[in-house]
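Notes from the 1:1 (GR / supervisor)

We went over the backlog. Supervisor wanted to see one worked example end to end before approving the batch request, so GR pasted a single chain during the call. The sequence is below; no edits were made to it. Supervisor asked that the structure be written out right there so they could see what the output format looks like.
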Amino acid sequence: MHAVRVVAISGGKGGIGKTNVSVNLGVALSRMGRRTTLLDADLGLANVDVLLGLKPQATLKDVVEGRAMIDDVVMRGPENLQIVPAASGIQEMAHLTTQQTASIVQSFDALADRMDVLLIDTAAGITSDVTQFLCAAQEVVVVTCDEPTAITDAYALIKVLVQDYRIGRVRLVANMVRGEADGQRLYEKLESVCARFLDVTLLYAGCIPFDEAVRKAVRKQQPVSMLYPTSTAARAFHRLATTVDEWPIPTAASGHVQFFMNQLLQTA
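Structure output shown during the call:
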């Protein structure tokens, strides 16, 4: 069994384009030849399938309740991106019991040999449903934009991860910025506060510039990297995917999907 890179993507608040980053990063990694699975872990308000214009016949709720196997749930997205849809608008899915989480853990064993990268699109905020996925992943990516409440909420999320869960490394993606210089400044602004008050290494993963092509792609329910491949945003997503692909490969033990799932259970 080979190692799988597990990357959890989150943000302190809604409206920052977190899911759009997750989807387009997944498409870009798949295009690079990495077998990529995107888990929609926003278990209360899932919308990965909406962004891609897909209509799930079954979701994780069906797996949890024994009505479907994981193979019945997995959907094939653009560039052969595998998508595991959650259940949108179903309150109980946002508060899984340990036993229910265990059923998801076991079901993912069937996918382990079919992926090189597992991306987890979490909900926004700092609820336990979010932090348990973040604590189990090998890499935590926080998405934010250059707007006061977004920066404040991103810092609040990082603070909880560091002080309550002892996470020592977080990566930052600056979304919807005017350019690379603004993305770097946003990172430096947040990094200086983290360095002063938190025992954490905040690393800059990159930025996605504001691009009207993204808005058009969302309206058409397609990834911007496919609909407008030469756009500024599409090129930025390719650079981000290249960066992610260069992160250290996990060791054999900690890199197994089962290890991630066991971590998820322990955190829950």
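Supervisor's comment: DSSP finds twelve helices and eight strands in the chain.
Batch request approved.
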